[in-house]
Amino acid sequence: MHQSPFLIGVDGGGTKCKATVFDADLNPVADGVAGPANVSREIQVAQQSIVESIELALQRAGVDPADLVPNLPVYAGLAGANIASASGALSAWHHPFKSFAFTSDLYSAVIGAHAGKDGSVLIVGTGSCAASLHANKIQQFGGYGFLLGDKGSGAWLGKALVSYALNSIDGVVPESDLTCQLFDNYECNSAEMLVDAFNQRSPALFAQLAPMVIEAAQQKDPIGLTIVNEACDYLNIIADHALQRSGGSLALVGGVANAIRPWLSPAIQAVCCSPKESPEWGALYYFQHIYHGDSDV
C-alpha cells in the first residue's frame, strides 16, 4: 500500500453522492457520483453511496481504489448528519478509510459557496434550507427533512403536485393541464391508483416531478404557479433570515435552485451569486480551518 497523495471531499444529498479527489493544495483532480446519501433516512444506502462515489473518483483520477482507500482521509458533508441518531450511526461505522470526518451538507455548502468567508446559502435540491456563515459560526434555517420540512424543495414540489392532483379528483380544486399530465404520465385514472403509485416513494423520486411543476409554472399553469409561488414565499423568508445574519451575498445551491430562481423575490435575486467553491471543497475546509474537535470519527 502507498501513502495517499490525495484528500477526499464528499457531498452527500438525498438524490446523489458526489466525491471529489483533491491534491494537497485542494485543487480538484477527479469526481465520482453514486446514489443517494441522506444518512438520516437510509444509513446503509448512504454508506454504500459514499464508498462507491469515492472509488469512482479514484478510478477517474487514474489510481487503483483498492490500493489507496485504506490510506485516504475522507471529509464529508452529508444530508441528515445533524440528526443525533444518524450522527451516532456514522460514528459507529467501520468505514474502510484511514479517517472519516463528517458534518452536515449545509455546513459544507455554505463554507464552499463563499470559499470560507462570511456569506449565506440557499439550498434547493431534493431538500431545502438556508444558512449563514459569520465569524466561523453557522446558523441554519429549515432543512428538517421530507416529512417535517424541506418546503420549496424538489421533493416538496413533487409531493405538492400529487396532493393537488388528488384534490382535483375530489373537486376541491379545479384540474389543470399539469394535474392531467401527472395522471397521464403515470397511467393513473383514479385517486386510488395515484396513491398506490406514490405512497411509498422516496423524496428523491418525488423530486423527479419538480421539472414538470416548474415547466408548468413557466407555461402559466394555475396549479404549477400556485405550487411554485408557495415554495418561493417560504424560500424568500429563510433566505432573508440567513442574509440578516451574514450580510453579503447569497449563493444558490442544489439541482432545483437555478430553475426556481426567477420566482424568488427581486430583493433576494439581487444578492444571488454562484458558489465560489464546491460543497466537497467546503467539507475539507471546514475540518482544516474551522472545526476544532476530534475529526477522526
From TrEMBL:
Pfam families: BcrAD_BadFG. Residues 8-271 form the ATPase BadF/BadG/BcrA/BcrD type domain. It comes from the Bacteria. SUPFAM superfamilies: Actin-like ATPase domain. This is BadF/BadG/BcrA/BcrD ATPase family protein.
